[in-house]
Design goal:
Largest sheet: 2 strands, antiparallel
CATH topology of the largest domain: Lysozyme
Distance between the termini: 56 Å
CATH architecture of the largest domain: Orthogonal Bundle
Shape: elongated
Number of helices: 11
Number of domains: 2
Amino acid sequence: MLTRTDHQIERNSPTPRLVLRGGVLLGAAVLVCALAGWPRRAGAADAAPTPTADFVSREIRDMSRRLEAATGESDMLRLQLDRANAVQEFSTKYRIPADLSAAIYDIALSEGLDPKMAFQLVKVESDFSQRARSPMNAIGLTQIRLPTARVYEPGVTEKQLFDRDLNLRLGFRYMRDLVKQFDGNVQHALLAYNRGPTTVANILAQGGDPRNGYSRKVLKGDPRIANVPVTVN
């Protein structure tokens, strides 16, 4: 008798998908063998009629679709598992609710940011406080200011900027654009996020060093972030 644990193992096991793939391949083998044997049985009185080329083509297409579906299902399950593991790891590392961790992770990927950078950015800017507000009127999780937000979302209000997902999306999009503006230099982009792009650009144009400790603080969580390409469209 299978225990509850045994049933759980069965449900989590890749065996059903392997059986499906094996069944498809076995079906293909049977079809090929059958086709190979038909000419030899053609003279028998009770022999089945020889399949047409159209019939064989349909059978092969059907088997191919079933195999592709099984492979696609396996890939999708793997992606879902990777996401779940990442969300859990970030939630544990930063001691934040799983839903907030999932939102940061998903929105960072959709905006072309490495999730490691996104989590560190939110950590440094607001310490994951959705209601955070600075003396300079930077708002929410990513501490984005209203004029900057309106570049991406014309007409957005201060109240709306406290919305978790909207704030994350606009802040991450701004960060992505800064990386593009500073030719892929993540450290300069982070400094621009903190000090303003005009200030950083002017300092660099004069041969100065715009560093003020901010980029080091963000990258402290994982220095490799500075070398991770950011998707820019």
